[in-house]
């Protein structure tokens, strides 16, 4: 008889932003390991396609059209999850406001002095407050089941500062604090909370909001040979949600190909070394 601590059979997971990129890869992976997965995404068509892809592969999934900027819609996502599958074991807070006109080059989320109050609040609402609200609505159901796992996608931009996207970075830093507070408040009652911090992951959003020359620069500064893929994040999320990850809580785990593991100036030096080595 084989045992896999990675198995998610019998678990129920709700994933915001589950119709694309990191959320989609995680939904597909968790479903392939046995979880029933609920895709909570603002993009109804993409969410339906995500469900179809999971069902075609033999998994169980449901789409609940959700704008995480709306409190009632987050509650509805949790309620629909519980009504359909009888409970919720895993909540993955993953959606974020990723729009070229906001956090793309020259977008409105730029220098602090130029950002208006409406945008401050909108970015915080979607990128941070929605994560707290997801936890607020999921936790009572998780407690009824004796525990659960809440995951959050933060960002390298929440650990260190980028030049533009001041509010995105601020919201992502807030997730790191929110994560610790949830873990501390509910750990003794069986609920774990873990934040995942991706570096550069090639997803539709990254391609839409990060200019190619910045992606090249970021990849050059990683201590790795390639750009990150959505599957790299999905593997960690599925591990954390499983029994194999059951002693991990309150942490922020960085998956960035070593982007943040060295002094920034060092990458420029090693580029010179590579050039010298190639020329010799
Ligand atoms: N791709 C990267 O390089 C990278 C790096 C660091 C952090 N992240 C974070 O990873 C998460 C996922 O990003 P991704 O790159 O997979 O993006 P993506 O665009 O591929 O997927 C994001 C999904 O979120 C959905 N969404 C957007 N606004 C929503 C809303 N208000 N309510 C519900 N759903 C909404 C979109 O429809 C989309 O399906 C985000 O939190 C992002 O900040 C990404």
CATH 4th-level superfamily = NAD(P)-binding Rossmann-like Domain
Strand order of the largest sheet: 3-2-1-4-5-6-7
Structurally, the number of domains stands at 1
What's the CATH topology label? Rossmann fold
Strand and helix order: EHEHEHEHHEHHEHHHEH
Question: Which structural category do the helix and sheet elements fall into?
Answer: alpha/beta
Radius of gyration: 19 Å
The helical percent reads 40-55%
Give the averaged pLDDT, no decimals.
94
> Could you tell me which ligands this complex binds, including any ions or cofactors?
nicotinamide-adenine-dinucleotide
Quaternary organisation: single chain
**Total number of beta strands:** 7
- Class in CATH? Alpha Beta
Describe this structure in words.
This protein has a seven-stranded parallel β-sheet, with helices on both faces. It has a single domain (12-279), classed as Rossmann fold (3-Layer(aba) Sandwich). The protein has 280 residues and is of the alpha/beta class. The longest helix has 29 residues, at 117-145. It has helices spanning 21-32, 44-56, 71-85, 100-103, 117-145, 156-159, 166-186, 204-209, 212-220, 230-241, 264-279; strands at residues 12-16, 36-41, 60-65, 90-93, 148-153, 191-198, 252-255. Bound molecules: nicotinamide-adenine-dinucleotide (NAD). Nicotinamide-adenine-dinucleotide is lined by residues 16-17, 19-23, 41-43, 46, 66-69, 94-98, 126, 153, 155, 198, 200-201, 203-206.
């Amino acid at each position: 008889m084989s045992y896999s601590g990675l198995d998610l059979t019998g678990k129920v997971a709700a994933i915001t932003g589950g119709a694309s990129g990191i959320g989609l890869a995680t939904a597909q992976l968790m479903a392939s390991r046995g979880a029933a997965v609920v895709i909570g995404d603002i993009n109804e068509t993409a969410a339906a396609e995500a469900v179809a892809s999971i069902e075609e592969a033999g998994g169980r999934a449901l789409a609940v059209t959700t704008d995480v900027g709306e409190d009632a819609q987050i509650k509805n996502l949790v309620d629909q999850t519980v009504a359909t599958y009888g409970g919720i074991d895993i909540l993955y807070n993953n959606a974020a406001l990723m729009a070229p006109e906001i956090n793309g080059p020259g977008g409105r989320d730029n220098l602090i002095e130029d950002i208006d109050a409406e945008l401050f609040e909108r970015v915080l609402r979607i990128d941070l407050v929605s994560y707290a609200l997801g936890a607020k609505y999921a936790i009572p159901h998780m407690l009824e089941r004796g525990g659960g796992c809440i995951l959050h996608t933060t960002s390298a931009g929440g650990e260190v500062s980028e030049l533009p996207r001041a509010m995105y970075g601020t919201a992502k830093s807030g997730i790191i604090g929110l994560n610790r507070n949830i873990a501390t408040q509910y750990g003794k009652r069986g609920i774990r909370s873990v934040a995942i911090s991706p570096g550069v992951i090639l997803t539709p959003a990254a391609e839409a909001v990060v200019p190619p020359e910045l992606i090249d620069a970021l990849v050059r500064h990683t201590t790795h040979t390639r750009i990150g893929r959505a599957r790299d994040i999905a593997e960690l999320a599925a591990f954390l949600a499983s029994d194999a990850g059951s002693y991990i809580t309150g942490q922020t785990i960085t998956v960035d190909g070593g982007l943040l593991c060295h002094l920034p100036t060092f990458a420029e030096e090693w580029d010179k070394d590579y050039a010298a080595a190639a020329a010799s």
